[in-house]
Amino acid sequence: MTHRPLWIGTSFKMNKTRAQSVAYATRLRSELGGGVPGVRAFVIPPATALAEVSLALEGAPVRTGVQNAHWADGGAWTGELSVPQAADAGARIVEIGHSERRAHFAETDGTVRLKVGAVLRHGLTPLVCCGESAEVFARGGSVEHVLRQVEAAFAGLSGTRGDEGLGRALIAYEPVWAIGEHGREPRPEDVAPVHEALAAEWGDRVGGVLYGGSVTPGNAADLLRVPGVGGLFVGRAAWDVEGFLELLRVGRRHAGAMA
């Protein structure tokens, strides 16, 4: 049986200067050498550092991405970044619909869908974030809530596993109650129902389904063993290179065990 590579990556959010981001990328490149067997690594720096990080990682086994992009190719959208501009700066992945953007910047299911369409149109990989609040989790509505978010994000799109169309997309399940500095560390049984549902509904139609939220080197192996988890989208535990490298080593061991 052939297993798809794991995706393991991190977003720096609004952290790190250009110099700090490039120093991280330079050391990461040096440490990774020819890559991590069975793992696709990615880094999403702040937009100010995207071009320089992409150059620092050129030819390395690490993809770079951007934390947000507009659905229009250009125009009077002050303060925004288009997908062509992101691609020009080296991005291959575009993060879309993170709960922080939904909560604080009026991101909706509708704008997420527009952005997914733009990213696919330009040949990049959309990384679509989804997740439920603590209140939804407590009343047992996680699966329904997350499936509805993902269905809205991909409405009208079609595709099969592969590199074309929707098959290039990634889903990152990030329960709101588990992310951020004060997030609660998840138990595998907390996230298993959503991942099993996502895998059943979307596993053969997208490029991967990742878990994110309070991921650490200590719990990464247990999370990767949850059925339906095809990788990890990590926050602060990967903001220093050694932490990210340790997570990649966990991914390598898991991929080897599954081979």
UniProtKB/TrEMBL annotation:
Its EC number is 5.3.1.1. It comes from the Bacteria. Keywords: Cytoplasm, Gluconeogenesis, Glycolysis, Isomerase. InterPro entries: Aldolase_TIM, TIM_sf, Triosephosphate_isomerase. This is Triosephosphate isomerase. Homodimer. The keyword Lyase does not apply. Belongs to the triosephosphate isomerase family. It comes from Nocardiopsis codii. Pathway: Carbohydrate degradation; glycolysis; D-glyceraldehyde 3-phosphate from glycerone phosphate: step 1/1; Carbohydrate biosynthesis; gluconeogenesis. It is found in: Cytoplasm. It catalyses: D-glyceraldehyde 3-phosphate = dihydroxyacetone phosphate. GO terms for molecular function: triose-phosphate isomerase activity.
